[in-house]
Batch of 2 targets.
Target 1
Amino acid sequence: MPPTSTGQQEPATDHQDGAENGRAKQRANEAQEPKEKIEGKVYKDYLKLDSLLNNVDMMSFRHGNPVHDEHLFIITHQTYELWFRQIIWELDSVRAILNVPIVSEEDMLTILQRMNRTASIWKTAVEQFAILETMTPLDFMEFRCYLAPGSGFQSLQFRIIENKMGQKMENRVNANSIIESFRDEDSQRQLRQSLEEPSLCDLLIKWLERTPGLEEKGFNFPARYTEAVNKYLANERENMEMETDPEKRKGLEAEVKKQRDTFASVLDEKSYNEKIRLKERRLSYKAFMGALMVNCYSETPRFHLPQQLLTILMDIDSLVTKWRYNHVILVQRMLGSKTGTGGTSGYMYLRSTVSDRYKVFLDLFNVSSFIIPRDYIPELTIEMQSALHSTRLSGTTLGYRMHRFSEPSLKPLSF
Amino acid sequence: MPPTSTGQQEPATDHQDGAENGRAKQRANEAQEPKEKIEGKVYKDYLKLDSLLNNVDMMSFRHGNPVHDEHLFIITHQTYELWFRQIIWELDSVRAILNVPIVSEEDMLTILQRMNRTASIWKTAVEQFAILETMTPLDFMEFRCYLAPGSGFQSLQFRIIENKMGQKMENRVNANSIIESFRDEDSQRQLRQSLEEPSLCDLLIKWLERTPGLEEKGFNFPARYTEAVNKYLANERENMEMETDPEKRKGLEAEVKKQRDTFASVLDEKSYNEKIRLKERRLSYKAFMGALMVNCYSETPRFHLPQQLLTILMDIDSLVTKWRYNHVILVQRMLGSKTGTGGTSGYMYLRSTVSDRYKVFLDLFNVSSFIIPRDYIPELTIEMQSALHSTRLSGTTLGYRMHRFSEPSLKPLSF
Amino acid sequence: MPPTSTGQQEPATDHQDGAENGRAKQRANEAQEPKEKIEGKVYKDYLKLDSLLNNVDMMSFRHGNPVHDEHLFIITHQTYELWFRQIIWELDSVRAILNVPIVSEEDMLTILQRMNRTASIWKTAVEQFAILETMTPLDFMEFRCYLAPGSGFQSLQFRIIENKMGQKMENRVNANSIIESFRDEDSQRQLRQSLEEPSLCDLLIKWLERTPGLEEKGFNFPARYTEAVNKYLANERENMEMETDPEKRKGLEAEVKKQRDTFASVLDEKSYNEKIRLKERRLSYKAFMGALMVNCYSETPRFHLPQQLLTILMDIDSLVTKWRYNHVILVQRMLGSKTGTGGTSGYMYLRSTVSDRYKVFLDLFNVSSFIIPRDYIPELTIEMQSALHSTRLSGTTLGYRMHRFSEPSLKPLSF
Amino acid sequence: MPPTSTGQQEPATDHQDGAENGRAKQRANEAQEPKEKIEGKVYKDYLKLDSLLNNVDMMSFRHGNPVHDEHLFIITHQTYELWFRQIIWELDSVRAILNVPIVSEEDMLTILQRMNRTASIWKTAVEQFAILETMTPLDFMEFRCYLAPGSGFQSLQFRIIENKMGQKMENRVNANSIIESFRDEDSQRQLRQSLEEPSLCDLLIKWLERTPGLEEKGFNFPARYTEAVNKYLANERENMEMETDPEKRKGLEAEVKKQRDTFASVLDEKSYNEKIRLKERRLSYKAFMGALMVNCYSETPRFHLPQQLLTILMDIDSLVTKWRYNHVILVQRMLGSKTGTGGTSGYMYLRSTVSDRYKVFLDLFNVSSFIIPRDYIPELTIEMQSALHSTRLSGTTLGYRMHRFSEPSLKPLSF
């Protein structure tokens, strides 16, 4: 089996079949294989504890100056790396499932479960900084001298996670030194590969572009939304004009103008594309419209799961930012403005990564700027409604509704 | 170097010198050793990531039925085992520092730092159950069949932690099966050894017995405390007798009687020892008096650190109980009342461990029953006060107090 | 407007219309009402801060013995009561939405959002105990004497929450003293009313009984499930009989027997009802079958939301148990085994509430005992599948699936 | 009684006596007052629940368009305001205790307990954002229109906390609009008063300036530290010069130069004062030296409590920053870049407050830049050591050390 991105051998994964949930396939495989007797294992052999727990090699001991806290330093980083491995496992799986022409609702459930898990891991990763904070700067200084040229900057798995999420190289503060910091060929190869594969963000964009209802010849959400926004802005202007107090009116005028400018940037595809060019937006116009549509109709059952996906992606973005922030705080406390062990600029570099440019899904946060009140959101056509919505049918007096064959079908949509 | 309790090779630790903080010694060692050039390592070599991350061997893949979530199951358990290793590292160090005739205040600071760290690890361990809870019973059932005869019951490090904390075999629900569950000689040897060494609880008892102020010929805290309790109870009785409302009086009478009975169990050494015989108490009489004294005077600077130690030990007891509880909930959700993978009785067994009998430091919680209001706590004698207390000296009008050579010395106490 | 359950005036709520999402209705109401000018408010008037923040009346001050920490004691309890008010608000709304013959998927989304919110509040409530734990037993003892006859036992809102969740009086350790502990008529009236209204558990049972697929003349899940279990048990028996090692075989025999007994209790309605009579089960047979079915098919989109509801209810049950446990620990640390301020037995009483009998949704946890491996779960019939499932239709080559009028309709089910 | 800073009536507090722990005084007061019979209260009267819970006045109801989630919005803000009241209570108490010429170790214990409590409250405040995040942008938009001109920007208590901590007006992004945003005289008065009183940061500076060991004619830490740094830098330079690899040497040279520049800014009082003038430092030179000294000797018992105080202040700074960050994220999700309800610029304004300039105790974080390895830290003189340190005395072979009258006294230092 070929080595995988994390450097260790691992079996081919079930999700390489993409949208196929893989389970049926697995069972088929199982049937074909001759069932040889595979011995069960006791706990410590199953988890390979003899090997796992045997990787603490304290430099301070090697230098004849044993420092108690170096043990903590190593173990903490090792737990992070184990969790990073798990995050990559989930990301690979989710990207494979998304990387198909159609994503069914079952697949969406699987994706959501795995992204929620990823968020849960990040939450633990954020909070477990408290453990390392029990070390003092004086403790750290005792073994810090032995750590060079090592640096957390060299965590390959962390870089790979960033890349697989969709962190753009061009948004990085020091893109060049990242690739350079990995000297061995294998690491560099894995890093490059993670940049070449479609990232979660790339796949999300394609998926959002397929949002049902965007088609010009169908529901044409962009057109209806434009109309709705114009109605809303006109109403705001009317309210403004009815204001008699001159000072308040001045405030409202500014507000109305600001809103008009804000909305202009999404109502017109060209203006929007200009923002992409200026790197102020990353989602394509169509994808952005998809995200907007999902937000507008998130309370209809069919748009609920998509909305959950957008939400969990923002959650993860926030959690990663919090992780970076906690990391910054820790480094600031341990080192102040001293140079980092690997020669990195330490605090100042890390501080610069706690910013919006390191948020992969920043555009999703921005969608909120363009949501209009429920009353203005264009009503779904009967056709769309029947597709997306569980309408209240007559004749559903029993405990639950029976389907009837002659009715317009209300297929669950998958997109 | 000999294999240690956790099965992996590791260097002799600094704390084997006991109370010696070890740092001076370390520097001496360093001086003696010829300083050969030791090469620094990059991040992945320092953390031995190639070895660390290469321990995921999914049984479902071996059986030709790959199950995505088994990866999570393995990684989660591995992070637990890494943290357990760290907890053992801290426990060993703290026990060595405590295992001396005198524990200085500097040593107490080190102990507190390390026990706080241990609590912080347990906190993460409690909370990271949320990650494993993202797996469903159906997911688990897909690979559960491959896990037998493995069982979390077989975590050697967890047993060793329990033993080193001071979990008594006789308090265990199924003491016999625990030793049996480890089939290899090395594990059994480590387990036995962890039972033979003085546990944290044993050492705590000895340390509490040395609490300054307990001596009969000195401050004689037990005698003064007895007197104080009697005054307090007499006052309560007086208040009761002044009550004219018959119903209220009845309530107060019962209350006074109950208090009298409660206090009787600690005022008389024989009654107390009877409770030890009945396994209702674990601390010796003298140690219990020490704990009581620390609680009574915790607001004097010299008793502050000892009080912090008692508090953090209760915190850890509570956290371990919460860990057990979360474990129980998880098993209940995954398995209901099904038999555990290693043939254990699963939920019912685990449920039985979430009880007070599994609290090592239960007696410390009980101390609160015997605390009396501040006004009744016996005043420190001038001698004790000068030893324990920063009294407000005359002539300390400057920004801080200067010491004067002719005064009674106010040495920091170490015990 | 009449006073509500929490003693304060509050407006009629939107959810009193039950399943009607209420929004359309609201807008209609709005249209009818004359729109008089309502003045906006600044922050402090909107939140009524002058009134809200003016409710700290420290008894220790009244007694001329001001104790700093009583302020914390009051504020902490007040924040709990505010959150309890919010929990009641959510519970009332969710019960109203559930208390109808049919619950649509939109309604289910609303229910889930509000129960998730409730869980989130409980999470904060569990964790904020850490704040009160910064008070020491000595601090508490300074003002505790002034608190009688008050007691947390008298929190009306907490009792109402228990009742509205469905905590049965007969499962309470001291049901009588609970009603007695509220002396004023209004509190007693509210308490009784909360017992008379259908609880969340009552409504859940009715809802589960309506699970589509339970009908004898339709999919008849109970029959199919029985068949599946028998096949599964037969297979287990076969495996057992193939085992040649006598000792292992003995273990497997015991295991097979135990499984047979376990399953017997649900396969036969009479045996199950006997368990209800013995108070070992609370859900009706039909409701239990519904819960089992939801679990079995939770990976189909239509059963996903129902499964999420069952999960969040278990989460809340666990969180309330953790809240009780943290409360117990706090009381144990503050009081030891002293009598509680309201004359309650303090620690021992509270300890008794941290048990399975105080779990309202205990049966949902038990469902896991009866889940069988995915391979044995009865396949959905084409009819059920088309109702519940997004099947992979031919002709769905575009980015998402178009509905066709002539097909069997795939209506989203609401139940 | 006069209204206090938070607008509500409250009793004079015990800490207005400053360093006097107040307890003795309280008892005296108690003795003097005639003990009239004060009736105990039941729970709901003690907590004034009828008044407390009666402050929910939903604007959406007033406008005839009831929105379920407005209830959550109000309750959440109310719990924040209750906690803010508690934080002010603790801050006032701690500032009073610090605002004296000498702070004893007992007082330091009280300060630490209360600042730890404050940190614990902030932790809950940070985490309970999760509750409000269960509201969607669409939900919020339904009642947001009714909220103007209210804005969280108008939280008086939050501003008062910032001021009492020591947030400088000149560091605020929009200092002017803050005072303007409170229209009523009383709020403005309170705000001004909070700016005039000595802040926690002011008092910390004075306290640090009194650090024992700074005196020129005594231990003269600054001089010894300067010497130590020079020795350390000389050693670093030597190591650099021994490096033969030209590239590595170049790196080391840059590193040495950078260190030299860094240290220059604290070794010379004038350079340091220049940094104050440029607003890059806030602590006075002497206070900074005090903080540095506390850090260097934090492992001696006497400097342990001071170090704990510095640490908890940094913790609080970090927590407040996290609170701001969570607030930003919430606003970003709810509003995008829309204008805030009170006319504030919403997201962009809030984003600007999540920066180092809003950290009151930033200089404490910077101290780490100037810590040198343990081996270089100047040894305490015998005189200092006997004052600060529990030296290992001969003749202390018993379980704990007895004081002897003829020895140099080892008084606990208070500063």
Note: The two ends of chain D are 34 Å apart (CA to CA).
Target 2
Amino acid sequence: MKFNSSEIFKLVADFVREDVGRGDITTEALASNGVSARGKFLAEERLVLAGLEMADAVFGVLEASVEIEAFASDGDWVKKDDCFARVSGPADVLLTGERVALNLMRHLSGIATLTRQYVDAIQGTHAVVIDTRMTTPGLRLLERYAVMSGGGHNYRMGLDDGILIQNNHVALVGGIKEAIERLREAGLDYLHKIEVEVSGRADLAEALGAGADVILFTRLVPEQLNALVQYAKSERADVLLGVTGEVPLDQARAYAETGIDLLAVDTLSGAARAAPISFKISTM
Amino acid sequence: MKFNSSEIFKLVADFVREDVGRGDITTEALASNGVSARGKFLAEERLVLAGLEMADAVFGVLEASVEIEAFASDGDWVKKDDCFARVSGPADVLLTGERVALNLMRHLSGIATLTRQYVDAIQGTHAVVIDTRMTTPGLRLLERYAVMSGGGHNYRMGLDDGILIQNNHVALVGGIKEAIERLREAGLDYLHKIEVEVSGRADLAEALGAGADVILFTRLVPEQLNALVQYAKSERADVLLGVTGEVPLDQARAYAETGIDLLAVDTLSGAARAAPISFKISTM
Amino acid sequence: MKFNSSEIFKLVADFVREDVGRGDITTEALASNGVSARGKFLAEERLVLAGLEMADAVFGVLEASVEIEAFASDGDWVKKDDCFARVSGPADVLLTGERVALNLMRHLSGIATLTRQYVDAIQGTHAVVIDTRMTTPGLRLLERYAVMSGGGHNYRMGLDDGILIQNNHVALVGGIKEAIERLREAGLDYLHKIEVEVSGRADLAEALGAGADVILFTRLVPEQLNALVQYAKSERADVLLGVTGEVPLDQARAYAETGIDLLAVDTLSGAARAAPISFKISTM
Amino acid sequence: MKFNSSEIFKLVADFVREDVGRGDITTEALASNGVSARGKFLAEERLVLAGLEMADAVFGVLEASVEIEAFASDGDWVKKDDCFARVSGPADVLLTGERVALNLMRHLSGIATLTRQYVDAIQGTHAVVIDTRMTTPGLRLLERYAVMSGGGHNYRMGLDDGILIQNNHVALVGGIKEAIERLREAGLDYLHKIEVEVSGRADLAEALGAGADVILFTRLVPEQLNALVQYAKSERADVLLGVTGEVPLDQARAYAETGIDLLAVDTLSGAARAAPISFKISTM
Amino acid sequence: MKFNSSEIFKLVADFVREDVGRGDITTEALASNGVSARGKFLAEERLVLAGLEMADAVFGVLEASVEIEAFASDGDWVKKDDCFARVSGPADVLLTGERVALNLMRHLSGIATLTRQYVDAIQGTHAVVIDTRMTTPGLRLLERYAVMSGGGHNYRMGLDDGILIQNNHVALVGGIKEAIERLREAGLDYLHKIEVEVSGRADLAEALGAGADVILFTRLVPEQLNALVQYAKSERADVLLGVTGEVPLDQARAYAETGIDLLAVDTLSGAARAAPISFKISTM
Amino acid sequence: MKFNSSEIFKLVADFVREDVGRGDITTEALASNGVSARGKFLAEERLVLAGLEMADAVFGVLEASVEIEAFASDGDWVKKDDCFARVSGPADVLLTGERVALNLMRHLSGIATLTRQYVDAIQGTHAVVIDTRMTTPGLRLLERYAVMSGGGHNYRMGLDDGILIQNNHVALVGGIKEAIERLREAGLDYLHKIEVEVSGRADLAEALGAGADVILFTRLVPEQLNALVQYAKSERADVLLGVTGEVPLDQARAYAETGIDLLAVDTLSGAARAAPISFKISTM
């Protein structure tokens, strides 16, 4: 995932406006004398880094001359107490931008770190970790970026770039087969794979029979899943199989070992704890 | 905290745009035939509710005719498996709006629930739970609202509505006393209390002597804090005292029992787990 | 394709602002006395209608009370001289909104009409007409809607909702096979079909061999295409086949009869002539 | 017509957002490795160029470092197969920006080319080609620029910068004379010429008698027009005379030779075919 | 001047946001209990009213249910101590919106009142009062509306809707005659009158000779002006004549009596004192 | 008060758009040939300067290459006929930007000059001049900056960054004491001082007794005020005392000499006359 520079500036400028409002009254009174300073970003625990470019943009929004020097890249493990980036510029700009930069990096690195834990947990299996649309409102693109930094893959960006037939759709339409046919009539299969969420053998059989490209299992424990995966593979070797839902970290491997291709973890955003990162300022 | 209706519509419209993008392709193909449906919001665990008005706005952005009927209010405890709200409208609108409404309510109710746990933990002490500027970028107003729904109070909205002298400011200016004097010269004390972050006795004495209105202790364990609180109270009875930092939930009471007035918990946003809420749709 | 009402209002308000600017000086001086009037939209030639809802929104932006009554729907053929819609409201609002409403409907109906001509031209074959990303800047969603009104299907909405490997990509990566492998490594095949643009037999063979889901032929005359389609079908029965490029209307059938599934016409927007629609106002 | 640089950047950024959405998924997977490339813009037919500055801005929005080198200027005739501009920069930026840049230049050059055909058709007569408010919604400023690049002049930018009394106004007010008087009472004649649309001798006589500054004839064939122009000139030598409406290209000269000053062509935007321009990328 | 309702809502919502920011903390704590109240707008001096519709929109932005009842219209003289409008709604909404509504009405009524004083001062002469581009940044449309409410006329809305050749232009081009010729070559005289600013007889003669439509005299005392007006009228009876500049109120009549058509007063915005209007709230 | 550079650019770009609209038609026709010019800003009277940075941004929005050279700073007294800044760049950019730059500097310097007059009037007393929320809609931040340039201090930025209990609040709540208690219950005193507006002895006594931090007297003549100030000081030495209202300049000293701390002048924006500044352009 790559951001164009004008997009990221616009996004971050909104975050700066949210925190700075009509001005940083404390800092303006105390530190607007042009003194230069240096700030160090430090990891207070071992973490997977995400958000350096966004942190850089925070200071850039405030003053073009601020420079950030990075000693690690997004996606890297950073050790406890490591300084992974250094910022130089007017002291007041560093003080004013500090909190927004930290809030961004802490949030994104938290997601990246949790994602990496899932990735590590299923290492050696065939499956990959993917995200879902359960993201924090307003932050989807950034959280997707954090998932990629953590070694996961992205799934649907929104309701407009992928098909997923869920229970509620099936209930309205009357059946998986009919749903798939309608999507084909609408021409949606020219571009997109047809994906269906199933939670039992009957639904699975119907989806496979109707030509679904991807099956996402939901609401199943690993043992139940195992049987269905075997069945699906025996019926159609070409279909992609995945699991979606909350998937606790300690069960991730059990799920992955059923032979699925995709482990779609609902809670990468909602269960990640902000990563502990601090910022120390010193005058130059 | 109260939102004016045009502000909330604008905010939520951005979240809808983020998820729906150029259109919900699955639902448009399957359910745009005008069938009416009803959706129920269910708590999958006991939780403190927050975000009903925002969820309502999600559907309103998509179609003015959708109505939400609530059986609980923001700030209420909702029991596991309770249906706390019901939405009626075109089936496709419910399907398209479901995820954004859930993402909002899950995030905000998660924060409200965690806040309430802190509030309950310190019940009977003199202290109140307040939030800090460590919020998710773009969501400060909503997260503040969630903290209030949980029974907490709000602190600084941004850098522009309150003064806080932190270590970095002191280092630049040369001392707490000089910092307070400069803020007074700038006329900031006409409107705002002067607040100082301290982590030791020398700083505390300097802040009290210079006339700080509020002292926020940081980086102290409860025992250390206890001594400083006694000292501060003996020196100046009129000063407000608080603690700020991560404050683990299981230590909240120990901190509160030192006699502080304010328990500023950094992690209300960053450590809250999204509350488990689901949405079930049925045709009418 | 369905627009949510707040989106369409926002889009159309921009178009109104573009034309009305700081106010309709002629009309304000001549007709702001509150007189009611009625306006009729007339087809000056036989055409396929598209844009009624947008025209309605134009008047709604200017004054909420204006009402539009439609005698045909988007996608219908309207005969020469037919009045297909009637608007009632203050005379000045009709006069001020007329041009924007007409510009929108003329542009969109032009595209719908041209699309229908392609659809009719290939009727009875297996192929369907689809659009491409060659749209007028700023109007993609509306032009897509017009294509659907004309009986076509939509293809990629943007660079973010579908994969298409084009010559330039292949040149950079070194081969179609390698390109497909990289897309798979990036996990893009979980959601999207892998589509490849080819213009000769070697490329086609490489794409088929590497497992492409969709082949779009380009820069071929119908006879050349015919041979390649036969070859592709003999190799892989499951692959979707299409043609993309300018595809003159009088050759559309020849292309379609090669047995392709998709006729992607580049020029639906760029070659469509605005449909002749006029608006007659009379006082009530 | 001159654009200030911040305006054009803002406009083009919206077009880029429309096409790129949440990211160019194909190119990010295949070409985000920092390889430099060069792209050539080629005319596939003889055309009048318009939109170079806008194309330049497209790449600038994506990445500040991209540079465009032009071998022709807007308004120049470019021969078939000529390379009129060359872009250098990261390969992925060229691939991602290509379509928006082409869509813009093709649309604008199409209008410029058609305008030039009208200008050439009436060369040697007294008349000039001017545009009208029949433009593509959202693109008026750019299309005006294209008309100027083609050698035409601009007319009203919107309803706010010029007066035009049309049939509908006259019907409401009760007469051309009364309309002109009201506009004078409103003080609109301090700044603007008073222009009246007429389609017959009675209206013409009334407009001339009431002191109209400009007469725009409409719905007349050249022979009818001829007589009215002679009459108008004999009555008032100082009045400007024009024709407005669709004016087919092959009748343009006949209209111009009646002695009018202005040939206002309604169809410069709506009838122009996108100019065939292509873009070839090669690595450096 | 007429505002469309979506434009005015958008404009006023920005003003509300400026004042209310993240919420009216005092009122939320004291009056958010749903009590209804009534507020009266009172004139503390005799004044010409302007801005009722904008004041209404202020409350509408905060809460759709608030209603305003007006006892006077924009443009009316209101006597000292008169209540000219009454608002009913939730007490907190009235308290929160009061200041923005007052700031708007005070500013606009101040301009309307000053304009009316000019209009009255020159009553009986041939001249009318018009405004100029010397307006408060961001408020031009509203200030223009206030001038009209005061009985004045509007002049240029911006640099794009009227021509004015000023000294600086003449200096660059080399002469008034050449400037007028260039404007004609650019086709600007099809729509706009050609206006020239002159401050002496030589310039006046050149402008008249070159066919200027409007002459604006500047930097002249009434006696000097008198002579030039006589000269201009003797040379060209059809030309409009005006005066522009600060024009003190006590000299307005002397200027008007020279026989000019237009009195363009630069200081209608910049010299107007905010009109004294107050707002009294009582519970219902 | 300090503006971040992206904020000021955004704000000023809106002002430029308001004046330039679709383009400066006069200047484009006369001066778009690339000639360089120089413009001088001149004070036509003695004034306190404010707005240089904003004027600079006006030209920067139009063309990045324009440079401004200043011979004075915001807050300085500038003598009559002094040139305090010089701009160099393309002639057309100077001509197009001139009016917006002047409108901004004239408005802000007018406020700065009036503020300085108040500051000078009370020199030697204990009081300082502060502003109020009676500002021009849309310009609060800039007007605040002008007040600071004039030597005043800023007070509330909006309803969200300070508490002020006014008559209307007291009437709703039932008493000053109860109002203060409610604000404390809402936790607003953690950050903000509690300020109360009073106009008589009973209110004053209640406010002092309930622990108000700041008292703002209103609707009192200096003699009445004198007695209340003495009383307040005898009761509570620690409370800040101020006066708010229109405060005519010639009574400012009498008010200040009562011993108050704050002189909150309502009319700094509304009564300030635009400062006379002109701009002379010459070619280079």
Note: Chain F has ten helices and eleven strands.
